[in-house]
User: Fold this.
Amino acid sequence: MKRVMEGSAGVSDMVTLCRPLVVSAYPITPQTHIVENLAQQVANGKLQAEFVNVESEFSAASVVLGASATGVRTYTATSSQGLLLMNEVVYNISGLRLPVVMTVANRAISPPLSIWNDWQDSISVRDAGWIQLYAEDNQEAADLHLQAYRIGEDPRVALPVMVCMDGFILTHAFEPIDIPDQAQVDAYLPPYQPVIKLDPADPLTMGAFMEPDKYLEARYLLHRAVADSAPVVEEVAASFREAFGRYQGGLLDLYRMEEAEVVMITMGTLSSTVKAVVDQARAEGQRAGAIRIRCYRPFPKQQLRQALAKVAKVAVLEKALSLGVGSILGADLRDCLYGSGVQVNEYIIGLGGRDIPPQTVRRVYDHTASGRPADGLFVDLNAEHVGDELWQAWQALW
Amino acid sequence: MAATNLFAPGHTACLGCGEALAARLVINAAGANTIIAEATGCLEIISSRYPESAWQVPWIHSLFDNTAAVAAGIEAALRATGRIGQVNVLSQGGDGATADIGFGPLSGAWERGHDVLYVCYDNEAYMNTGVQRSGLTPFHARTSTSPPGSASLGNPTLKKDLPAIAVAHGVPYVATSTVGFPRDIERKVKKALSVRGPKYLQIHVPCPLGWGFDASQTLDLAKLAVQTGLYPIFEYENGELTGSMKVKPRPVEDYLKPQVRFRHLFAAGKPDLAQEIAAIQAVADRNLVKYQMVVPASG
Amino acid sequence: MPISHAGVVRPGTSRATKTGSWRVQRPVFLHKECIGCRQCETVCPEGCVFGEDKHFEADLDYCKGCGLCAAVCPKKDIEMKAEEAKA
Assistant:
């Protein structure tokens, strides 16, 4: 049933319907409303779960690790510094093949301290072995949580899933969201059957150490597990459409790619603005197109190559960066398109919640369409804040 | 072989390892209906080299610093599935994992009151990584990061009083024990597991390699630590001291001299060292009084 | 054998490692003064002392020769003897 609700409430309502048995989280803006809602659901008896109010994100991740290892469905959420703090646990959860589901309300990394949106947090753990899904709007954000449990708990996958949603832009925005009822969710998401678990009836040792003659192979097997989860991500998006009548998730969202020559690529809510600019350019007769990456890890290389096979120029707009080097998402695209002849431009945009109006995106589009190069080029630098010398040099690149 | 030996042989602990002995006593006392969360450290390494495991109960090693939180998660899962009180949750680690790197999560777990027995195997240094100093390394002990030399007498601090910190958290059962008295360990594990809520048991486990003594002396040294007052054995229940092991006190030298890690305190021709040993004696004397350990004089 | 799912290990498999090969001395149970106190069985870090009543032995597959059983025996009924040099 569709109701106008805050993005955070859409997520918490959907998570409640997924029936996690252990929820543990530590408050951090802008994730707070999600976990506060869940606490209220538990207090009202609507969510039958152990709600463990921990003393740090490091412990939140560790609590869900222990609970998931004991064979129950779990949930946690965090942002920014919290995700960095739980870093070693994040790697441990995927290595132990535990299908934890975590919401990351994407937020900038300190310093400087910022509570506003960008993707530096989730992108910094892209190599940890979690499946990463990025939502464009709040309907998708809610839906992806239901899909996340189904993907992660699939015995062919048995991996944790990170659902990434732009902090404030989605978490605190009110939109009409269709939340299914419990019967629909129960029909779509069966009870969790763990591949392995801690149980006195069948004792197992988890987390043994491995010597150099085996560690490499253990990581190879984990690497394959993550890579091979892509078809399941697609399967689940398809079965979701069958069950709920709308296509969400999957690997890529292709927008007006028919005979596109200049394509903008991005993730999350920025895609909405990008699509609007594509419409504008098309109306002027330009062959503009857009691709939104929905599943960032595993990275859909083959699908991107296919979609971009006849494209001349690509502009990657990313809300993250590798300090001293430049683009990360852009580097992933360049790697994937190596040898194809496609010109890939990389733009760093919107860090720390910097607003990105359509004119800014249009500027990026025109820059790429004109054939000028961009290697981790920052968009929208303010002269007053960086000083004249740096600004002149930057301006020349545009 | 004992039918209920839940910690199998074939593990790679050093000869005479106090920690391996204590761990075997603990899990055998706890029984098969136990799930263990374990920290990185000697015990974890010697017992879980893929594809072999000495553990015959469900056991998980996650990280060095999150054991108490992982155990809290296991407990929460048992609670959520109606099995709390039917399955024991045992969380264990060395002194480094407990007092230092894992202390934050331990404090949080105690404050929240999870029904978990936490056992600290105290060999008084980071033994697994090469005998580095921890928060439970005793005064003047030689470790690889607190070595004595012309400008140092070894570790400059006293042991962090973890039992007192546990009591301050309101942990209903807090006790110390030692491999010197194996039955004491068994009794206290069983007693702890009969208590609902958090419980903390700190076990003194001499380390032949790290402390510098012959493997066959592990139990004798453990007893000496108690008899000198340097490792008081006691129980606190609901905040009150309800029991302690009584001793006929022996001078601390009896315990310190046989160990290489204290040998620098007995170097010839250094009269100033006497006051250093007196300082250690003062620690022992305080313990003897505080924990009411002295056998009353007869007559 | 392929590495197991998430590297999990089955219980008690440490028995495949025969730590008895580490030994330079072995406990000899004299079976003369034993009072059946079972302290030898209790204090073995390997858990490899076994027996019943007043007759105990060490499982030499695992015994590392640490000497704790001999040290703790109240009747001195266990002696540590050097391992024979291999020819």
Remarks:
- The beta strands of chain C are 25-29, 49-52, 55-58, 78-82.
